[in-house]
TrEMBL record:
Belongs to the JMJD6 family. This is Jumonji domain-containing protein 4. Residues 2-153 form the JmjC domain. GO terms for cellular component: cytoplasm; nucleus. One of its GO terms (molecular function) is 2-oxoglutarate-dependent dioxygenase activity. SMART domains: JmjC. One of its GO terms (biological process) is positive regulation of translational termination. It catalyses: L-lysyl-[protein] + 2-oxoglutarate + O2 = 4-hydroxy-L-lysyl-[protein] + succinate + CO2. It comes from the Eukaryota.
Amino acid sequence: MRREFPNQDVYETPIYFSSDWLNEYWDAIAVDDYRFVYMGPSGSWTPFHADVFRSYSWSANICGRKKWLLFPPGEEEHLRDCKGHLPYDVTTAALQNYCPPPLEVIQEAGEIIFVPSGWHHQVYNLEDTISINHNWVNGCNVSIMWSFLQAELSAVQREIGEWKETMDDWEHHCQIILKSCTGIDYKEFYNFLKIIAEHRIQALQDGPEDNNLQGPNVMAPGPRHVLFDLRKIADTLILLTDNKDFQKLDTETLNPRPEDLLRTLERVIERGDCRA
């Protein structure tokens, strides 16, 4: 909606959810985003899943009612079959003795629900329902996103491990499969961190009154928030550059180079700490 009607603020993201690196990044590269309007008739439902990149999500009911079945992280492990697959429907009779009962929430019209990272869930429309939903990542859960990507790459490597010695550029093919499965690979994850870092550095230079992060769906963070974000980016960047799979990739095309970006972040954070 925002791209089709850029001058119409159809809705505002609640301030509690507006520190949103994920959609900030996809807006910056103008490819896609993770904002959705869901419409479903009474009786329709969403199968058991956890959200993309193990992001947070929020869902606001415009009209209608929903029933949410929510499982804290780790509870889904009780539901895997002998091949490690998760079920499509957790309400089937065959599964009832294998896990504790889920947290059940009835969401009314006008209510918003927040789903933390890694909480698997299954959702039912109890009436004809329209909702606005965002997936989002920020400094509080970017480490979970990074852990998720590592786990997904490991799964890909196990799946095609038998061709490691015979396939040209096996690591590159693993990254291609990773991106096809999750929507992002290690290089794009670096670019994601880089774009958010550049925005935060610019925000520090502009000051809270003039920074360009303000808008109906993006908050204008204050200096302490900006420094928090930069520290989290630096922490994650250290983990990324120390990762053996990332080190095997051709990073010559990355601009700036990861080590240069990290040095810049360290300088900016040090200056910011001195001013705080």
